[in-house]
Design goal:
Length: 354
């Protein structure tokens, strides 16, 4: 067995070095705000276009300025404005050259990767002791509260363009006066980013149900299923039972994916205990009381480890969304954005706007 203490120490040293690098080149510092009024002007559309032109995501800009991604989204949408000190920092960022900007953004990404690497080392170490490399801390879970949250599926913006990532979804919702709290990719999609199987948005079916049981990829691992938001609440059912379920209540949103992770409380028998196929994976699951959980792994896990984790949440039905490319957004904490562009997205917004 590798010397875990040595490996972890190396990662800690590497993180410390990267933090130094980030302190030097990651976030910007302004000793005194610019004096000229022109430098302190702020326009939401200009700021949004600048970020898009230079490829700076909202989380990345938050890292440069020192703040939260949600604050950046609010500035881009015009819902709020930066103060003088932050406007001064924005002016500094505008003047940063391409090479220096690339170095700062890479420093941010490297620190995130180093922390994830250290988490993997710890998981492997404890996995040797407890014979299970996945723990609750290896996942980020979001519990939907129907009294405070609205859950929906999103594919295109108001102009008919596929959203594809969390920045675009945030801008889309902010433009409608809605606040995004949590989001993740929502099912397997094709090269043109349209959903592979059934897709319903706002009660309108955009893609038909696929009933074929053979084909290439995880989507066709059996049984696969459908995740839906109905008038009665969230629902996860096997594909073969979809039509009966759809006739029972109005369907607001639905996405088909595969495979099912949990079936009536039992882990899909296809998942071998000894599997070593670990990826960043995400899925949805429901409890007997219709409590909806959205989960994404922080470290690479197997199908079975994700299913086992869903059981610890009290779920009896669980569906796999995707792996490898999976990402998530949270207004409360920093999460890996995955590998966009995505197809459909599941988003949770605040009912009261806060």
């Amino acid at each position: 067995m590798p010397n875990i203490a040595r490996l972890l120490k190396e990662e800690i040293v590497r993180v410390a070095r990267l933090e130094k690098l980030l302190a030097k080149g990651g976030s910007v510092a302004v000793e005194s705000p610019p004096n000229e009024d022109a430098q302190l002007r702020f326009r939401a559309d200009g700021f949004r276009k600048h970020c898009a032109r230079r490829g700076i995501s909202a989380p990345a800009m938050a890292g440069l300025l020192g703040g939260s991604a949600q604050t950046i989204y609010n500035w881009e949408s015009g819902r709020s404005r930066p103060g003088k000190a932050q406007t001064a920092k924005i002016a500094v960022v505008r003047e940063i050259g391409k090479r220096e900007l690339g170095a700062k953004l890479q420093a941010q990404r490297s620190i995130g990767m180093a922390f994830r690497s250290a988490a993997v080392i710890l998981a492997v170490h404890w996995g040797c002791v407890f014979a299970s490399p996945a723990f609750a801390t290896d996942f980020h879970d979001f519990s939907v509260d129907p009294a405070r949250h609205r859950v929906a599926l999103y594919l295109r913006d108001a102009h008919g363009q596929i959203l594809g990532d969390f920045d675009a979804l945030n801008r889309h919702l902010a433009g409608r006066g809605e606040r995004l709290i949590f989001a993740m990719n929502a099912g397997i999609f094709m090269e043109d980013r349209r959903p592979l199987g059934l897709y319903v948005e706002n009660g309108k079916r955009q893609r038909a149900l696929i009933v074929a049981k053979s084909g290439y990829g995880n989507f066709y691992m059996q049984p696969n299923g459908v995740f839906a938001i109905t008038a009665a609440g969230p629902l996860i059912v096997p594909t073969e039972r979809w039509w009966d379920a759809a006739r029972a209540q109005p369907v607001l949103f639905a996405t088909q994916s595969g495979p099912l992770l949990l079936i009536d409380g039992q882990i899909n028998p296809l998942f071998a205990k000894q599997s070593r196929a670990r990826l960043i994976r995400n899925g949805v699951c429901t409890t007997p009381s219709s409590q909806l959980w959205l989960s994404i792994s922080r470290v690479p896990v197997t199908f079975r480890e994700l299913a086992e984790h869903q059981k610890t949440l009290g779920c009896r039905q669980g569906l796999y969304m995707d792996g490898s490319i999976s990402g998530a957004f949270s207004a409360e904490t920093s999460l890996a954005p995955g590998r966009p562009p995505f197809g459909p997205l599941i988003g949770v917004t605040s009912i009261n706007g806060r």
